[in-house]
Amino acid sequence: MYPIFNQLVRSGTSIGANIEEADSSPTRKDLKYKMVIAKKEAAETVYWLRLVIDAGLIKNENNIIKTKELLVECGQIVKILGSITRKI
User: How many CB atoms lie within 10 A of CB 59?
Assistant: First the structure.
């Protein structure tokens, strides 16, 4: 169980880090590259959240609800980052 949660934390925190790096990119090419990486990390986070839910790793009903909300929000982030990268 720990490796799954570890991967979830790593991919989830990487999204914001890559967006921050993209914000200070010196070129449009670098900006797009960092945003694409952020999108990939967001998609990976969706995977880990689904795995946590589907595997029943969370037992508390309130935590299950919150995790499902995070899954929806992360899916929205994937779409937003996809839109951004297409427009760059």
Answer: 7
pTM over 0.90: yes
The answer to whether residues 21 and 67 touch, using CB atoms and an 8 Å cutoff, is no
- Domain 2-87 of CATH type 3.40.50.970: no
pLDDT (tens, 9 = 90+) of the chain, 88 residues, equals 789 999 999 999 999 999 999 999 999 999 999 999 999 999 999 999 999 999 999 999 999 999 999 999 999 999 999 999 999 9
Rounded CA separation 45/40 (Å)? 9
